[in-house]
Amino acid sequence: MKTILLGVSGSISAYKAADLTNQLTKLGYQVDVVMTQNATKFITPLTLQSLSHRPVHLDVMTENKPAVINHIDLAKRADLFLVAPASANSIGKLANGIADDLLSTVALALLPTTPKLIAPAMNTYMYQNPITQKNLTTLKEVAGYEEIIPREALLACRDYGRGALATIDTIVEQSLAALKESTDEKSES
Ligand SMILES: Cc1cc2nc3c(=O)[nH]c(=O)nc-3n(C[C@H](O)[C@H](O)[C@H](O)COP(=O)(O)O)c2cc1C
Q1: What's the 3-state SS for 18-56?
Q2: % of the chain with per-residue pLDDT over 90
Q3: Contact (CB, 8 A) for 139 and 108
Q4: Which of 2, 27, 177, 181 is the most buried (most CB within 10 A)?
Q5: 145-147 and 3-8 strand pairing
Q6: DSSP 3-16
Q7: CA of 43 to the centre of ligand 1 (A)
Q8: Would the CB of 11 count as within 6 Å of ligand 1?
Q9: 69, 108, 157, 176: which one is catalytic?
Q10: Atom of ligand 1 nearest to the CA of 38
Q11: Neighbour count for residue 13 (Cβ, 10 Å)
């Protein structure tokens, strides 16, 4: 069974991670969820635990399995790393090697061959901000991430523009494509 490591950060669209977790789990993937503390203000860990049938990971210093170090174990077991939704803050941390919570620490520990997808979701000015764009470029060009481009829509903040989380169908489709590509590459080598 393939494992998808799903990072959920503090965006208003974090509630959509429930549908995403549900769909990926029903497709037969093991979904290991890592949430930032701020994500837990938008959706409960219990919801994602119930839909993934797996423990949800929240804290880099919580070590429930003495035989392993959790952030390294999560990173090594991932067949795909998917951050959805990705907040501007978490994108900035991932792009700059900051590892001050579980999500950003796991991201640094991923194997170079693990496919990595990032689905930004934020206000359109936050998304268009050159700093956010530079961070996304760094993630793509330096760390091998693929961006799941946000949609143009009327946003929760009532601005209209690009910044809405891609549809769950799009995220699932890109996740399956990334997993297939990585499996094909492994079987060719
Ligand atoms: C109601 C509300 C909605 C928010 N929505 C977003 C969002 O969609 N995208 C985003 O990047 N930040 C959003 N923020 C701000 C983030 O939650 C904030 O930057 C936080 O530090 C992100 O932390 P994290 O990346 O550790 O989860 C929102 C904040 C509030 C109060």
Answers
A1: HHHHHHHHHCCCEEEEEECCCHHHCCCHHHHHHHHCCCC
A2: 94
A3: no
A4: 2
A5: unpaired
A6: EEEEEE-S-GGGGH
A7: 12
A8: yes
A9: 157
A10: 27
A11: 24
174 token code pair: 């890109």
Distance CA 4, CA 179 (A): 9
In terms of C-beta density within 10 A (0-12 exposed, 13-18 middle, 19 or more buried), how is residue 146 classed?
middle
In tens, the pLDDT along 44-90 reads 999 999 999 999 999 999 999 999 999 999 999 999 999 999 999 99
Residue 11 corresponds to which amino acid? S
97 is catalytic: no
Ligand 1 contact, 38 CB (< 6 A): yes
Instruction: Decide: 39 in ligand 1 pocket, CB within 6 A.
Output: yes
Nearest to residue 164, comparing CAs of 4, 6, 16? 16
Start-end of H helices in the chain: 16-26, 45-52, 70-77, 88-95, 102-109, 124-128, 130-141, 168-188
Instruction: Write down how long the chain is.
Output: 189
